[in-house]
Structure formats: structure tokens, C-alpha cells
Amino acid sequence: MPNPFSPPDASQDAGSAAPSRRELNKAATRQAITDAALGLLRSKGPGNFTVEDIADAAGISRRTFFNYFSSTDAALASIVHGFLDNAIQQLRLRPADEPMLESAQAALVALADPKAIAPLAELFTLTQQSPLMSHTELEAWDHCRAQVFTVARERLAGTPGERDELYVHALAGSIISCGKAAMEVWFSRRGPDLSPASLAELRQLLIDAMALLGAGFTTTAFPSATRSS
Fold first, then answer.
1. Mean pLDDT of 32-37
2. Is 50 helix (H, G, I), strand (E, B) or coil?
3. Could you give the residue range(s) of every CATH 1.10.10.60 domain in the chain?
């Protein structure tokens, strides 16, 4: 019997067209901007650099920066979007008849390399250390919530009794709330530790949080990995 949490077969995406040179160049510029923003955040701290500083560090013009992002906050929030977008992509590849929460857990399991979660963890850590970055954190989580909402609405559109907006909003909000809870528990245990072991623990906490939600938070289903040692 196949493992329901195994990563989707790469052949499912075989029909996708390869990105054009223009698309690759745009992706490279976007990555250069986010790398520069994170580098300045590490070296100067929150609130101590400008759009111009990011543009200079990325080797682009101020005008080019605004072709990609509306503010320094937006550039910083995009650092975690790579992980979140990858998780959403995995979610979209799950079987259409699979329960939504099971799909969400499977999407996280499919992201097997703890390093994939490092940007999300680092920005969360820096946010906890500085109130100036609270808006950045909110923007990143709202980005994810909006995408989860879209996927949930698509998946449940043909399901009798599960089409109403309240259900979909509550489902998307619950998934994000569980994700944030996992991040908070991880930070309370590990602080700014971004070692491979720490990132692996964070990934497991995210998976376990989805399992708790899927089980209706029954105590018998409480994953042992979420308990304090």
C-alpha cells in the first residue's frame, strides 16, 4: 500500500513548460533583493536600512527594486514565501479526494530537508527579537493564509455541505494558527538556534500541529514529539 505522505511523483509536473530566460532573470533579481535585505537585517538590525541600501547591496536601481517589492517590509516578508509557496505547491499536488488536513500534513512531510525551513525560522526568530518586524511577520503569515484559503476553496468547491465561506475561512485560519503555534513552541525551546537539529525539530512540530488539528485535538492523538522532554 503506498504511503499517503510520500512526496508527489515528479512526473506529475512533467508537462510544465520550462521557464524562459526572462523569467529566470527576474527570479534571480528577486532572489538578489531578498538576499540583500536579509544580509542588511543581520548586519544593521531592524529599521536601520532603507530601500536604497537594499538596492545598492543587490546591485540594482531603486526603480528596479520597486518593480518587485513595495517596501523593505515586503522584501523581508518574501524571504519566507519560498518555503510557504513550496508547501502550497505540494498541497496542490495532493489527491483531490484526500482530506484537506491530511494533505496539509503530507505537504510538510514532503519538504524533507530541514534547510528548506531555515528562512521561515530565521525571519520568525528575528521578528520575536524586534517589535519593529511584527508587520513583516504578519505579512508573511497572511500571504500563506490567503493561499491556503484559495487551495481549500478549490478543493472543497464540489463537496456537499463544505462549500460555504465560513467553513473555508475557518479551515484556512486554523491551519495557519496551528503553524504559528508550532513556531512559537519551537522558539520557546530553541530561541535563535538555527542548527540542523533545531530546524528538524521545527519541521516536526509543524507536522504534529497539523496532526492535532486533523484529530480534533483529542488527547489520545497528541503526538509524542510535541511534548516537552
1. 94
2. coil
3. 20-69
**Cell matching residue 47:** 529599521
Per-residue buried b or exposed e for 157-196, using 16+ beta carbons within 10 Å of the residue's own CB? eeeeeeeeeeebeebbeebbebbbbbbebbbeebeeebee
pLDDT of residue 9: 41
Is the distance from CB of 147 to CB of 86 less than 8 angstroms? no
Q: Is the distance from CB of 71 to CB of 91 less than 8 angstroms?
A: no
pLDDT at 7: 38
Whether 144 contacts 157, CB under 8 Å: no
- CA nearest to 83, candidates 147, 11, 174, 127: 147
CA distances from 114 to 120, 125, 183 (A): 11, 16, 14
Write down the architecture of domain 73-226 according to CATH.
Answer: Orthogonal Bundle (1.10)
- Say what the pLDDT of residue 53 is: 97
Q: What is the dihedral of CA 210, 214, 215, 219, to 10 degrees?
A: 30
**Residues near 4 by beta carbon (within 8 Å), at least 6 away in sequence:** 98, 102, 106
Distance between CA 3 and CA 90 in Å, rounded? 15
Domain with CATH 1.10.357 in the chain: 73-226
Query: Could you name the CATH architecture of 20-69?
Result: Orthogonal Bundle (1.10)
* pLDDT tens profile 65-117: 999 999 998 898 887 777 778 888 888 888 888 888 888 888 887 776 777 78
